[in-house]
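Posting here for the record, re: GLP.
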Amino acid sequence: MKIIHARDYDHMSRQAANIISAQVILKPNSVLGLATGASPIGTYRQLIEWYRKGDLDFGQVRTVNLDEYVGLAPEDEQSYACFMRRNFFDSVNIYPSNTYIPYGLNPNAEDECSRYDAVIRALGGIDLQLLGLGPNGHIGFNEPADFFTKGTHMVSLSEATIQANKRFFEKEEDVPRFAYTMGICDIMQAERVVMVVSGAAKAPVVRDAFFGPVTPRVPASILQLHKDFTLVADEEALSAC
Ligand code: GLP
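Prediction output follows.
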């Protein structure tokens, strides 16, 4: 595990964007695993800037997103599909047909999860997975549990996650209670994993995840065992370590 100490959110975002841009330059048809949440927005912003300058080309890149809320259509403003278009896809030359996100409106969880795992397999796996960190240690929507779940699955969101994510919705009741998420195995099989974390509120969970035991009660802790994991965190996020 490597730790890159960033000064603040902007510095963290540029460092992570540098790693992703090196990946795309070295392998133009990379499969990028992408994340939502506030943490990666600055990274996407930086990648967009370099694309506009002509330094990056996403014409052959394929992307697979970590997760999606169950019950939200891709057109819904709160869906992760919409988040990705708004914060990244619409501003670079990625072909929409090369972007994959679980389909929140598939009512058949078993069918949607096996379909999504087949998508990841057909792409040949993930070259670089970008992650944020949930306040309870979740990655994607792999919530604290008694065991790690391997493949894509439907999760019932924890109270902590509902509380953390309500800031993106008008009312707490609007936060979906279920989500489809890639599993721990899908994430661990990525060639390379990069996580962005910022702010003092995440300091305790950064300590527990990366300086404590590996346990499914803190799902991100499994990344300590990944062969090429880089944590890009700012000073505040690292302040409890
Ligand atoms: C959501 C997403 C996660 C993300 C987490 C942290 O729950 N499913 O993939 O990492 O939020 O979000 P933030 O970066 O806004 O703290």
